Fold these 3 entries.
Entry 1:
Amino acid sequence: MIPKIINLSNILFIAATASAFLPADFHLDPPWAYLVILLWFEILFIINVARTWKKAIHVIDLYSIIFGFFLLWDLGSKVFKVLHFTLFPPPQNVFYIFTQDYPQMILGFFHSMFLILVSVGIGMGLGVILGLFVGWYHRPREALSPVINVIASVPALVYAPYIVAVSPTFKMASIIVIFMGVFFPTMMNMASNVKNVDQKLIDSAKSLNLSDFAMLIKVLLPDCAIPIIGSLRIRIATAFMILVMAETIGATSGLGYYVKRWAAWADYPKVFAGIILIAVVVTGINSLIGIFEKSVLKWVEIPK
C-alpha cells in the first residue's frame, strides 16, 4: 500500500505543484491552469497504477519523467534561470494561454481538421483505387511507374510555396499539397501490395471465373487493405506535417497559423501553447486510429 502512495512520481508531483507558487522577478500568470494539468496527470497516474499494479514500475517511471520534466522546466525558468523567461516561459504562463485563447484555438482546430479529413480522404481513396488498377494491369504499371516514381520522389512540401501562391484560395492550396503528399505514397504502396499478393490466391480466384472487377474488389482489395490501414497513422502524420508547414506560409487560420502568427510577434507563451495543442491533437488522432485499427482488423496485429 505504501509504495502506491510514496513513490518517485508522487514526490515529483508534489514538488512540481509547490514550484508553481514560487515567486519570480518577471511577470507570472495565475498558476491554476497549470495546476489542473498536473492534477490531470496525477489522476491518470493513480488510475493506471490501480489497474496495472503488477507493472506499476513502468507507470511510475513514465509519470516520473512527466512530472520531472515540468519541475525542471519551472525551476529552470524561475529559480536557476538557465532558461530565459522570454524564450522559455514558465509552464504556468504557457498553460494560462489556453484559458484566454481557446476561441482561436478551437476555430483553428476545426479549420485544420477539415483540411486534413478532405485531403487525406481524397488522397487515400484515389490512391487505393488507382493503385489497384496500376498494380493489376501490366501495361499501365509499366507506363506509369516511372512517372509516379519521379513525382513521388519530390517531397510535397517542396511544392507548397508555389501551390499556395497560384491557388485561388488557401483551402484549395492546402488540399492539393496534402493530397500530393498522401496520394502518391498510397498509390505506390497499393500497387506494390497487389503485385505481392499470393499467386495461389489469385489462381484460386481465376478458377472461379471471376471478372477483373470482381477480382479487384473481392480478392485484391481485401487482401491489400491490411497494410494500407496499417499505414494510416503515417499518412495522417505526414498530412499534418504538410498542413502545418503550409499554414505557416499563407493561412489566416489553423493550428500552424496560430504558431506562426505569435512567433512573428515573439509571444513565446502562445507559441509554446500552440505547439502543445498540435502535439495533443496529433496524439489524439493517433489514438483514434489505433482504436479504428483494432476494431476493423481484429485478427491482425498492427505493427506499432
Entry 2:
Amino acid sequence: MKVGFFIGCNTAFNRPDLELAVRYAFPRLGVELDDLIGQSCCPTSGTMPSIDLVGWCALGARNYAIAEERGLDMITVCSTCFGSLVRTRYYMLTNRGIQKQVNRILQEIGREYKGISRVRHATPYLYKEIGLEKIKEAVKYRLDGLTVALQPGCLTLWPSQLQADKENDPFHPQILREMCEALGASVPGYSRLLDCCGMGAMRSTDMERSFYLAERKITSIRTEINPHLIVTGCSSCLIQLDTTQEFLQKRRRIYYEIPVLHYMQLLAFCLGADPEAVTSMSRIRPDRVLLDLLLRYQ
C-alpha cells in the first residue's frame, strides 16, 4: 500500500515533530509514503480564492497532478490543506470551464489535471484502509487508564459530502474517538466538542477573539472532563490549542494546562517512537503523561 504524503506548510515549518510522527507510524502499519517531490502550498482556502479562484484551483491542481503522475492518492495531517484541496477538486470536477482554464495554465509547465487522485485525511485514511484491529495488534504501548478530550477540527467534518472518508454523521463524529479507543484511551464527550478552536483567518485578523474561542473550548474540556491530553486530527488545531494556553495563563484567564497532541503523534508513541522526538515542538510538554505510561512497561 502506497500513498503520497502532502506535508503542508504548517506541518513542515511549524510542527516538524508531527511530520516525523507520520513518517514513523505509516510504514509500521504497512503504508509506504511517497514524498511527492515538487509539491507546493495547498494553498489555503481562506486567502487566494477570494481574489483568483482559477489561480487557486491551478495551484491545487498542480499538487494533484504530481500525485496522479505517480498513480497515488494524497494524505495529509493538516485539515487546512485537506479542506483546501477537497474544495479545489470539487470546483474543477463540477465546473468544466474552471478545469479547462486550469489545464491551460498547467500546460505551460507540462502537466495536466485529470481528476483521478483524491486527498484523504491521515486519521480516517488509517481507519478505513488499515482498520482498528490491525492498529490494536501493532501498538507496543497502550493508553489504558488515560482520558483524552477530542478536537476533531472543522474541516475534517464539513462539507462532508465532498470527502472521501466522511463521517456517517458529522454532528456526532466517531472516527477519531474510535481511533483513540483502539489505543486504549477513555474518550468521554463534552458539550463544546464541535466548537471551532479559533485558528485560521480569525487568528490573523482578530487574535483576541481567536483566543477567546480557544479559551471557551479549553475551559469546557477542563471542567467537564479534566483529561490527561487533548487529541486532535488537525495540525492547525494542534498549534492553536497548544500555544494559546500560554497566552491565557500569562493573562490569568486560566490556571492550568493540558498537553495537546495530534493523533499521529500519539499513534507513533504507541507504536514505539521516542516520545521526545515526536513531540519535540510541544509548548505544553506531555512528558509526564507519556513517561508514566512507559514506566508501566519497564
Entry 3:
Amino acid sequence: MSRETVSGKSQDRSNWHQTPIEERIVLANKLLVLHPRFREAVALLKRCHESPARSGEPLCGAILGASGVGKTSVVDHYARLHPREETETATRQPVLRVTLQPDATPKGIAADILLALEDPAWCNGTVQTLTNRAVKLLKRCDVQLIVLDEFHHLFDLDRLKVMTKAAQWLKVLIVNTRIPIVVCGMPEAEHVLRAEHTERRFKERLTLHCFDWRTNLGRREFCGMLKKLDDSLPLAQASGLAEQDLAGRFYLGSRGVPDYLMTLIRGGLAEALMRGNERIEQADLARVYETKLSQQRVLGEQTNPFIGQLDKSALDRVQAADKHRSAGVGLTPRSASRRQRRSTVGELLGGR
C-alpha cells in the first residue's frame, strides 16, 4: 500500500495531556487521511482545474461512488487548497462548488450556480436571463473550476431516463465559459455520462469504492488506514486500532465505508476523553456504534460488533457496503420496484 499522509496536529503524544478536551475533539473532527484513492481523486480535480492553462481546452471529469466513500471530503479538501478571496470588485472563487437539486432542469442548474455565487436574485428570471447572469458572474468571480455535486439528479430514477435538456445545457455552458467541470454523484450518474451530450465531454473518470476485507490487499489497506489514524489521534496513548481483533470489529462496524469508520474513530475519541482516558477502548466503540450506526440500513442486520466475541464467521462473509448495495437501496419504493426488470439501452441513455 502506498504511504498515506495525515492532515492534523503532529507532536509528541505525551504533550496531548496539556491540550483541552474540546480542542482535541475539534482536531479529531478535522482529521483527514490522504490514502491512495483519496489522492487519485484530488489529482483528477487538479488535472481538470489546470487543463485550460496547459492545453487551452477545458478537461472535464467525474468522481462517482456510493454514499459515504469520501467524495465530499475530497472536494472540501481541494476547495480549501484554493480558498475564496475578497477583492475590491467581487469575491474571487477559484473553485465553485454547486449542489444540484432533484429533477434538474436548465433553469434549475443555472439557479443553483447563481445561488453558489451568492446572487441575491438567484431564482428570478427566465432560463435565458439566469444563464446569462451565471456566465457573467462566473467570469467576474474568476471561477476556474466548477464542481457539480449530486450529479445523479440528472438521471430520473422513476422514469429511468437522462434529463436530456439539462445535459445539453451543461454542454453549452462548458463551450461558452471554457471552464472545466467535475461532477460528483452516486453510481447511477454513470447513465448521464454515457448520454450523447456528455459522454465525450467528461473524459476523466474515477469511481471511489469502500475498503475491502475479502482480499489481502484490501485488508492491508484497511489496517494501514487504522494505523495511521491511531498514530495521529490527539491522545496521549496509542489505542491499538489496527490490531487484528479490533480491526475486524471495525470492518464489521463500518462495512468499509470511510464515513462510518470516521464516525467510530471520532466518536470513540470523544467517549474516551469524556471519561478521562487517553486511549480508545472497545467499550467506547460499542457505545458509538449503538447510538450512531446501528440503525444504518447496511449495518442493521447484525449485532453490535464491539460487544462479546468477534464473530469470525460473519467477518469471513462480509462484503463492502457498495458491493452489498442493491437496486433498491437509496431509491424510492416506486423506482426500486421498477428496476427489477432489465432496462433497454434506449431507456437508460435518453428514454426516447
